[in-house]
């Protein structure tokens, strides 16, 4: 016996199903028998038919042979009968005063016929019926045969055991899956072990696989983030350590070293701040109850971006319609205006960072009334992104192929994606045919006034 079956036998649920369905099956069999006994016509045993019809014919035929051919003719006919039938027929001279009678009389369990032989002798033929009787078998209530009781007991146990095993096996697999997951094995999957099952337990196993896959992805992303954070912190910390060493070796370079310490400290502060923002996006944004105007928020960010883009010779074009002038009314978004502003700033600043001098960054916000959503597009005329990196630029600490341009840690677009998704939207990147990159953000309407 396999281990799952042994575990099932020891389980309390197995015994509940076994005895519950076993008793039910037994009661069904017994109830069916009682119903048959109460409402159906009683069967007529085959021996009863022999007593009523065949045995009288047998005695009458023996008397006819005796009357026509005498005792020798009767003996020849009886010799062809089976041994048990020959033993049941008795022939003797009739008592004094007996007369031939063509009728077959019955006295208790004996059939009697008087026949006249050709020589004038009256013979008595008798057929004993007691050997044909089958003794009644002992039975339970309502004359229930022991076979029926045994069928109910054995059938109920077999049926309920098979049903209990069928139901318990997937539950045991689920339990082992949870145990494996609790032990750290996030790669455990239960769907293949369910085979061709198409019931609620199979659905539960598939839901378990989905949960395990998401948990495995979350843990992998956490580990990857911790690795990337430690890598990003190592460089500024190493430079800080070197600056302290230079001060000790050359006390006259204190001023230069302090400037380096201040710069590296600022970089660390920026990195920690972006990490905190990323954490806030994942934990706080969905629970915020603020409502804000996306169109006005984007217009404000564009105004700040124009101020920043001026020294680099980059033009920022805006195609943002104020929400108040929209035909559909003031369409608001529920969530965190602060985090959404940070996300939009990161997208526009990313476009500014990779735009050449004299380039143009276009920002537009449209309304898709059929789909009930806002569509934000940011287009630049920079070098674009290799096609194989379009899906990964939104991951933390991922930089483009020309990542040395400008300063940053590759967290801006990751923050933007997490913020947009926390607000029920989506963000995607695509290379433009004319050159450059286009970021598209879609956000659902929250309410219409």
Automatic annotation (TrEMBL):
<dbReference type="InterPro" id="IPR005467">
    <property type="entry name" value="His_kinase_dom"/>
</dbReference>
<protein>
    <recommendedName>
        <fullName>histidine kinase</fullName>
        <ecNumber>2.7.13.3</ecNumber>
    </recommendedName>
</protein>
<dbReference type="GO" id="GO:0005886">
    <property type="term" value="C:plasma membrane"/>
</dbReference>
<keyword id="KW-0547">Nucleotide-binding</keyword>
<dbReference type="InterPro" id="IPR003660">
    <property type="entry name" value="HAMP_dom"/>
</dbReference>
<keyword id="KW-0812">Transmembrane</keyword>
<dbReference type="InterPro" id="IPR050980">
    <property type="entry name" value="2C_sensor_his_kinase"/>
</dbReference>
<keyword id="KW-0067">ATP-binding</keyword>
<feature type="domain" description="Histidine kinase">
    <location>
        <begin position="228"/>
        <end position="447"/>
    </location>
</feature>
<keyword id="KW-1003">Cell membrane</keyword>
<dbReference type="InterPro" id="IPR036890">
    <property type="entry name" value="HATPase_C_sf"/>
</dbReference>
<keyword id="KW-0418">Kinase</keyword>
<dbReference type="Pfam" id="PF02518">
    <property type="entry name" value="HATPase_c"/>
</dbReference>
<dbReference type="Pfam" id="PF00512">
    <property type="entry name" value="HisKA"/>
</dbReference>
<keyword id="KW-0472">Membrane</keyword>
<dbReference type="InterPro" id="IPR003661">
    <property type="entry name" value="HisK_dim/P_dom"/>
</dbReference>
<dbReference type="GO" id="GO:0000155">
    <property type="term" value="F:phosphorelay sensor kinase activity"/>
</dbReference>
<dbReference type="Pfam" id="PF00672">
    <property type="entry name" value="HAMP"/>
</dbReference>
<keyword id="KW-0808">Transferase</keyword>
<feature type="transmembrane region" description="Helical">
    <location>
        <begin position="13"/>
        <end position="36"/>
    </location>
</feature>
<dbReference type="InterPro" id="IPR004358">
    <property type="entry name" value="Sig_transdc_His_kin-like_C"/>
</dbReference>
<feature type="domain" description="HAMP">
    <location>
        <begin position="165"/>
        <end position="220"/>
    </location>
</feature>
<keyword id="KW-0597">Phosphoprotein</keyword>
<dbReference type="InterPro" id="IPR036097">
    <property type="entry name" value="HisK_dim/P_sf"/>
</dbReference>
<keyword id="KW-1133">Transmembrane helix</keyword>
<dbReference type="GO" id="GO:0005524">
    <property type="term" value="F:ATP binding"/>
</dbReference>
<dbReference type="InterPro" id="IPR003594">
    <property type="entry name" value="HATPase_dom"/>
</dbReference>
<feature type="transmembrane region" description="Helical">
    <location>
        <begin position="148"/>
        <end position="168"/>
    </location>
</feature>
